[in-house]
Amino acid sequence: MVEVRKKDWYIKWVSSIILMISLLLTANNLFPYNLFVGVFGFIGWVIVAILWKDRSLILLNTTSLVIYINGIIGYLVDKQ
After folding, report:
1. Helix, strand, coil content of the chain in percent (nearest 5)
2. DSSP letter at 32?
3. Cis-peptide into 32, omega within 30 deg
4. Burial of 38 (C-beta count, 10 Å sphere; 0-12/13-18/19+)
5. CB 45 within 8 A of CB 61
6. Distance between CA atoms of 28 and 22, rounded to whole angstroms?
7. CA–CA separation, 10 vs 17, rounded Å?
């Protein structure tokens, strides 16, 4: 029997891989690329958290997303 996967399964795994890439970029001091990549992973996880109605995941990933966006804004402001 073939298992039918829901869209949250795909979003979850793609977002997790994106976040691992962001962590790898961070470990190799590739700033600000780590922030730009990480934002997409956190957006995916916020979507999954909302689909699952999991408040702790919504809080964690929304907070992480805001922190990364704050870092991107700081980078863009300092660049000028």
Report:
1. 80, 0, 20
2. T
3. yes
4. buried
5. yes
6. 10
7. 11
C-alpha distance from residue 52 to each of 6, 56, 58, 63, 78 (Å): 12, 11, 9, 17, 38
Question: Which two structure tokens, joined as six digits, stand for 42?
Answer: 């956190």
Token pair belonging to 46? 């916020």
- HSE, side-chain direction, 13 A CA sphere, residue 64: 21
* The two structure tokens encoding residue 39: 């934002």
Amino acid, single-letter form, for residue 71: G
pTM: 0.91
CB neighbours of residue 37 within 10 Å? 20
pLDDT tens-place string over residues 15-70: 999 999 999 999 999 999 999 999 999 999 999 999 999 999 999 999 999 999 99
